[in-house]
TrEMBL record:
HTH tetR-type domain location: 15-75
Organism listed in the record: Streptomyces reniochalinae
Pfam families linked to this entry: TetR_C_43, TetR_N
Chain residues forming the annotated DNA-binding region: 38-57
Protein name, UniProt field: TetR/AcrR family transcriptional regulator
InterPro entries with a match to the protein in the record: Homeodomain-like_sf, HTH-type_TetR-like_transc_reg, HTH_TetR, Tet_transcr_reg_TetR-rel_C_sf, TetR_SbtR-like_C
GO molecular function, one term: DNA-binding transcription factor activity
Domain of life: Bacteria
Keywords: DNA-binding, Transcription, Transcription regulation
């Protein structure tokens, strides 16, 4: 029994360290250009040693893959949260999250491509995102709040097109809102 408690504590310490590393990497990659952030800087920001960093992530690629996968996972989970008072509001909240995901994902994907190529399974999240968003769109369409002649692929392509516009959130936000207003069924009001 004496070995169980220290092992459990080691596991929880390891999980905390991993979470600290991921949080530090996310923050560092937002604060600076991705290619300007070294593994040593991530370890410093996380408050862990290099051995701990490399025990969790043997290289930069593994760290980037985990960050990228976590972003896809978070987006898919957010689709099931149903945030919003109506089906169209839930869809709109999720599409805004998708737009934010595209912003951060683009930087992560570009850096990750330096270590792999687009055929890598880590980039296979598109189907998962489509599957996550499909019920939100279907619910809004069933409630006659959103046009029924659009597929989830078309809606996400619309958001993608807006998200690729160069500019700050303050500039892009109103454009995205206008585009999303165009999804509404004729005769429906605001969310």
């Amino acid at each position: 029994m004496g070995d169980e408690e220290p092992a459990a504590r080691r596991r929880s310490d390891a999980e905390r360290n991993r979470a600290k590393i991921l949080a530090a990497a996310r923050t560092a990659f937002v604060d600076e250009a991705l290619d300007g952030v070294s593994m040593a800087e991530v370890a410093r920001r996380a408050g862990v040693g290099m051995a701990t960093l490399y025990r969790n992530f043997p290289g930069r690629r593994e760290l980037l893959e985990t960050l990228f996968t976590d972003e896809v996972d978070g987006l898919c989970v957010a689709a099931t949260a149903g945030e919003g008072e109506s089906p169209v509001a839930a869809l709109t909240v999720w599409l805004h999250r998708f737009a934010a995901f595209l912003s951060s994902k683009h930087r992560l994907a570009a850096e990750l491509l330096k270590h792999t190529d687009v055929s890598d399974p880590v980039f296979g999240g598109r189907d998962r995102v489509l599957d996550a968003g499909r019920p939100l769109l279907a619910a809004a369409q069933a409630a006659r709040q959103v046009r029924t002649d659009l597929s989830i692929e078309q809606v996400l392509d619309l958001v993608l097109a807006v998200a690729t516009i160069n500019g700050e959130d303050e500039y892009i936000g109103p454009i995205l809102d206008t585009a999303l207003d165009g999804l509404r069924s004729p005769g429906t009001g605001g969310a």
